[in-house]
């Protein structure tokens, strides 16, 4: 039988734990006294908050209510662009919403997933079952509520995600320039 020589360290799997090798014997042990590594604590869950407006508060934004009533794909596209943080365009989402509506007649099956995604992002009250039921029973009111929620969180829904990012970055640059002391030109001196 082959026995490893003490000069040859053992070939072990990389586990992330330090291993000590004792050259006088062939025993190997893991070091558990090293306390320099501590795993990061898990992230704290976001507190659950109420929606900023009710489901039937459409009277507060009549323009969006009319757009949603006649063309819900526009409202849905604007909401998805903000919820997806610009990775999906308003036009593409609206077109897909319209296509699903034309093919199977029930675009609410697609739009309810975005409500769930929005709830997770902002820690809003609700669950997946109520999201689906709300979208199936009163699609237009739910789309208006999602639109208003994003507006109340400071998004300009018409300019989309990239427009909001640009506007906020410009706003930071403008406030930094506004707080800086103005430069004074020196007059001619002799």
Question: How do the helices and strands line up, and which of them pair or pack?
Answer:
Elements: E1 19-21, E2 28-30, H1 62-70, H2 72-83, H3 90-103, H4 108-122, H5 128-137, H6 139-152, H7 160-179
Antiparallel strand pairs: 1-2
Helix pairs in contact: 1-2, 1-6, 2-3, 2-4, 2-6, 4-5, 5-6
- Characterize the largest beta sheet: strand count, sense, and whether it forms a barrel: 2 strands, antiparallel
The count of β-strands is 2
Given helix and strand content, the structural type is mainly alpha
- Please tally the helical runs, counting DSSP H or I stretches of 4 or more residues: 7
Low-confidence stretches: none
* Helix percent band: 40-55%
Which range does the strand content fall in?
under 5%
InterPro entries: PLAC_motif_containing (IPR006461)
Task: Characterise the protein shown here.
This protein has 190 residues and is mainly α. The chain has a domain at 58-162. It has seven helices and two strands. It has a two-stranded antiparallel sheet with strand order 1-2. The longest helix has 20 residues, at 160-179.
């Amino acid at each position: 039988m082959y026995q490893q020589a003490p000069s040859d360290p053992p070939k072990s799997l990389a586990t992330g734990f330090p291993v000590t090798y004792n050259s006088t014997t062939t025993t190997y042990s893991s070091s558990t006294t090293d306390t320099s590594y501590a795993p990061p604590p898990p992230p704290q869950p976001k507190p659950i908050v109420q929606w900023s407006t009710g489901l039937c508060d459409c009277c507060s934004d009549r323009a969006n209510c009319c757009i949603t009533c006649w063309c819900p794909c526009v409202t849905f596209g604007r909401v998805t662009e903000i919820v997806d943080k610009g990775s999906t365009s308003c036009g593409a989402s609206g077109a897909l919403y319209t296509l699903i509506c034309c093919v199977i007649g029930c675009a609410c099956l697609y739009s309810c997933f975005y409500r769930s995604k929005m709830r997770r992002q902002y820690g809003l009250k609700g669950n997946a079952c109520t999201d689906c039921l709300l979208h199936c029973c009163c699609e237009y009111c739910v789309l208006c509520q999602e639109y208003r929620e994003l507006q109340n969180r400071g998004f300009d829904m018409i300019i989309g995600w990239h427009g909001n990012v640009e506007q906020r970055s410009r706003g930071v640059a403008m406030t930094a320039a506004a707080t800086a002391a103005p430069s004074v030109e020196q007059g001619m001196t002799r």
